[in-house]
């Protein structure tokens, strides 16, 4: 039995992919939570007899020896930040292990597959990635060409894998403990936060969302038994709060409610949060009080904008009035609404931005909005549904492949300048731990200055009608 230079057994001259570490699964950044996008494929590969090594490079050191031992390396890139980190990591891998098969998987891998395959990747997987990744490893093990549904290579195009399969219970035992990840802060309560998903994909087709070009309005429910088993193992390792990270937890409200009821029955002291559309909060208002009774502390919702033309341009599906209604529904239920925002788009005016700031202050949401959201600029990755919108064409520039987005310029140069200034303020405020009201006041002053108007002389209004909102220690980002 031969042994190759990486120390992996190679019977009959072929690499043995069943040796420990012959398959390497890597995560780069997943919003401060233990990476489910590694735990699920890890469980799938183990069930088939493989022994992958998983490393979360956000909190772990990846040494050259681990890279050199691997024959197949798969990097999870579910979002833009992860892709930027993943490409830099891939360049290091190419230097250390040039013969290893390098695969990228996840939403942003799929959207940027042309660039990845041209410059660094051997294969890319999008959609439901577990079975395609297993098929890829089996093809490499056989030494045959990669002809696997859902796996695209330089030689073979493919569509994303939108196929149901038997989800395993995620394998988390070899990942870093929860103390390394985001914690819930709720008043004096600071506890480790777990993370799971009850569905993947989304019913809806917002034009700016990276889920849409891959799933095209489809979503897949993860069986209740799998979700609860995943929660159970995280609670056993210290989680006292669970984030449900579905693109929209209320795509399947009955499924979600049953899971929350079972969670509360088994672990009545474990709280949770989830993400849901404004439209769904309004539609399912009757469920919100029960979610609160079952332990829901806050809901993240993609408010994005208040400008009606901008909301229509990105096909968001709600109005300013709906946002106000959703706030009232959550207030009545005792659930904090934490808006995520997208304030800088080609359709957002300077007056719109000032109006958004005023709305945040008037509604006492300054502590509900993560600072980074005041600075977010629209990303238009390759394949984005926005490219199908004629409204975007007047502003669209060329594709900047290396930065994974189409360029665009705001028709009002003041908006582009303001975005850069706000981003710098937010970065400094986050780094130095500013009080949120101090940060908001500086951003507000910058916006008024950009508009050539005098900023209010009074400090931002502090909350009086709402309690301090619960939050996670890791800010939401993309």
Describe the protein in words.
Residues 188-421 form the Radical SAM core domain. Keywords: Iron, Iron-sulfur, Metal-binding, Plasmid, S-adenosyl-L-methionine. GO terms for molecular function: catalytic activity; iron-sulfur cluster binding; metal ion binding. This protein has 2 domains: 15-153, 3-Layer(aba) Sandwich (Rossmann fold); 178-472, pyruvate-formate lyase- activating enzyme (Alpha-Beta Horseshoe), CATH 3.80.30. The protein is 37% helix and 17% strand. It contains 16 helices and 19 strands. The protein has helices spanning 36-47, 64-69, 80-96, 107-111, 113-119, 130-142, 212-215, 224-236, 253-266, 278-283, 285-294, 308-313, 320-333, 350-362, 413-432, 436-450; strands spanning 2-3, 9-10, 23-27, 53-56, 72-76, 101-105, 123-125, 151-153, 183-186, 189-196, 199-201, 219-221, 241-244, 271-275, 296-304, 336-341, 396-400, 405-408, 471-472. The strands form 5 sheets. The protein has a 7-stranded mixed β-sheet. A hairpin with a 4-residue loop joins strand 17 (396-400) and strand 18 (405-408). Helix 1 (36-47) crosses helix 6, helix 8 runs parallel beside helix 9 and helix 15 (413-432) runs antiparallel to helix 16 (436-450). The N and C termini lie far apart (47 Å).
